[in-house]
User: What shape does this take?
Amino acid sequence: MEIRVLNYFVETANQNSMTKAAKRLHVTQPTLSKQLKDLEDELGQKLFIRSNYSVKLTSEGELLYKRAVDILNIVNKTENEFKSMNNFNGGDLHIGCAESYGITIVAKAVKSLSDKYSNIKFHLYSGNFEKVTKQLNGGLLDFAVTVQSLDTSSFNSLNLPYMDKWGILMRKDSKLSNKTNITINDISKIPIIISRQGFSDEMPNELKNIQSTLNIVGTYDLLYNASIFVKEGLGYAFCLDKLIDTSSESDLIFKEISPHISSPMKIIWPSKSILSKTAELFLEELKKSLN
Assistant: This one.
């Protein structure tokens, strides 16, 4: 299985058309068609459902697509790392991030590094703990930033000096807006919007313990989108502080939960992998900024 053919396969899947894919790949359609047929023969599986004007992935094709994208990303990442070894002036940094204001710490370290090396490029990936650790172990990420007290013993880690505070995002005219303290009991009485990761390890135990009593009316991937629904009076968003504008000009306010629920933050990286030159320098810069 050649990298070139995997690239042909992914491009064809992205375009849903051999004609369009052939043009983008600068090959003839018969050549592309033969290469993909040879790939199907090699794997012993049909990868595309073909019609006169389009192609569509089979279930086997969808599985290969996920694998092929990861493989091509790793190849590209590796090529870039080796290119940057001579006359180093920067490189690519891949970081999985939880949605948190504490990412400011990481951003400042990247800024300090980019001031020294003009060709630093950063790539940020969102995802829950399970997703980003899988990408770390697969070589797709250099680092991941985690929140909540999770088991990271299989990784190298560095504690970051920031604690996320959990609370409720609400309209300023909502019935809870005048309360000094928002309790767990209050949350069970309101229509709540939670992160789509739901009651995974990242969710505080205090909320997981009352899951059965919650009136969950919606879920979100990006808090900004959820805040629009909050503005429209569709519910209250359970989230971290300092991610949405709650200034005097905003229609929204954030209320911390009492007693306070906070989550520690750390950055982790594979314990058995060799860091790229860019990743090494970033880690040095980050440690320097914390001292």
In short: The chain has three domains: 3-83, 92-161+264-290, 164-261.
